[in-house]
Amino acid sequence: MSFPVLPTTAFVDPFGQNRAAIEDIFQTVTQAILNHLTQAGKRAPLPQPVTTAYPAIPEQPGAIADLLAPLQTIMAESMNPAHPGYLGHMDPLPTTASILGDWVAAALNNNMLSVEMSPVLSRLEPLLMAEMAQIFGLGDRAGGLLVSGGTLANLQALTLARNVKLGCGQSGLARQPSPLILASEMAHSSIQKAAMILGLGLEGVGLVPTNANAQMQPDALETLIRAALAEGKRPFAVVATAGTTVTGNIDPLVEIHRIAQAYDLWFHVDAAYGGAIAFSPTHRHRLAGIEQADSITFNPQKWLYVTKTCASVLFRDMALLDSHFRIAAPYMNAEPRWTNLGEISVQGTRHPDVLKLWLSLQHLGKAGYAALVDGSYALTAVMVEHLRQRSDLSLATEPEMNLVCFRGCPPHLAPDRWDGWNAQAQQRLLKQAQVFLSLPRLRGHLWLKAVLLNPFTTAGHLAPLFDQLDDWLRQG
């Protein structure tokens, strides 16, 4: 086929006819990326976009060189998680290996739908996921899948839970008496989204009260289960959280599992963020009980520093996916020893995220990730000590991970004005100290949240933050 209208660089010629031109483009973009990443500490952690208009789709092809200037603008105005003052969310700077893996995966453009369409990576993913499941202690029958985000991981886990516990994979929910998922009132919003998608509605999630440390109360869980059964409802799953989004707290997993087992409920642990603690021999005891889970959500795109997206859902018994979820696709060839992952996943076509995850794990190793987790805890201790020295700053909970949620309580202001002070403090820190803290709402009020995730953030970056807060507390 011949397409005179197309630029000669529209595709990489598989016989190398345009290699020199493509190489120039790749080198130019590589330099732009390197310049961006190696100067990230000199730019704001959260730039304010100036660009408000973008060119419309042109009628005719254009020169690719003309696209490099907009790329520079996009990079300069994007969120900058590499800055040591970017502390607002669970968004890390990426590992070098995961950047390379993403680039190679994009070039290969394989489809994780089937083994035929991704012959190497469709074999690598189940092997790596089985190894990850062992890190959590799930047993020899365990494994998992990579999905595009924790929301889909929770959806996949709860779909399987519904099908297994209610036996409704074939007949649906028409004959089911009000199925119910139990989850903490601090659980991620994706649990309620999953309930809507599964046909349960928002009322299909029973929200369990939490204690002062934002942890699910086991007694309250059992009370809700008994009340639901008395009302003719059918509880089938309980979701525990290992690392709440706002405060980073961990539900009492051992006790929740005991209750789930007593009432024959599927036990799912949303460890999208906190699952990384399993890599640390020093801190993995905080996840005690996770080894009893029927399923686990874990996102390497967070505390393992892998480029987005990279999320996983792990199962104690992978065979349940075959018996209660799998839909065979007649257009995909079958392999005797390997599963077509698109048949057992919520997603069909998927980006091959396994490559960047595998490369990152190979590059940093378990010891490297343990050091990163331990370093985050050490820096958290420094920040907590700063807070304990200041009576005008109040912690939301006792931190259990590298999240610190706090707020200013200026004594010279009425309590109903504290929200406004904290909102102003967030903006002042961003503009005057190059520090970005997020501003979540908790218990009806605004709080400041720091996620001590960046390996280049040091205690030296925290002292000026508190100096600024001290000044503003004095000034009012």
Structure report:
37% of the residues lie in helices and 11% in strands. It has 476 residues and is α/β, with parallel strands linked by helices. The protein has 3 domains: 23-80; 103-361, Type I PLP-dependent aspartate aminotransferase-like (Major domain) (Aspartate Aminotransferase, domain 2, 3-Layer(aba) Sandwich); 365-475, Aspartate Aminotransferase, domain 1, CATH 3.90.1150. The strands form 3 sheets. The chain has a 7-stranded mixed sheet with strand order 1-7-6-5-4-2-3, with helices on both faces. Strands 8-9-12 form a 3-stranded antiparallel sheet. Strands 10-11 form a two-stranded antiparallel sheet. The model has no long low-confidence stretch (mean pLDDT 95).
From the structure above, extract its key features.
Aspartate Aminotransferase, domain 1; Aspartate Aminotransferase, domain 2; seven-stranded mixed beta sheet; 12 helices; 12 strands; alpha/beta; 3 domains; 476 residues
Compact description:
This protein is an alpha/beta fold. It is built from twelve helices and twelve strands.
Q: What percent of residues are in strands? A: 5-15%
Gyration radius, in Å: 24 Å
Protein structure class = alpha/beta
The N- and C-terminal alpha carbons lie at a distance of 72 Å
Q: How do the helices and strands follow one another from N- to C-terminus? A: HHHHEHEHEHEHEEEHHEEHEEEH
Largest sheet: 7 strands, mixed
CATH fourth-tier homologous superfamily of the largest domain: Type I PLP-dependent aspartate aminotransferase-like (Major domain)
Cross-sheet strand order for the largest sheet: 1-7-6-5-4-2-3
CATH architecture heading of the largest domain = 3-Layer(aba) Sandwich
**Average residue pLDDT:** 95
Low-confidence stretches: none
Which term fits the overall shape?
globular
Query: In CATH's first tier, which class of the largest domain applies?
Result: Alpha Beta
Domain count: the total is: 3
How many DSSP-defined strands?
A: 12
Number of helices: 12
CATH topology of the largest domain: Aspartate Aminotransferase, domain 2
Instruction: Kindly state the percentage of residues in helix.
Output: 25-40%
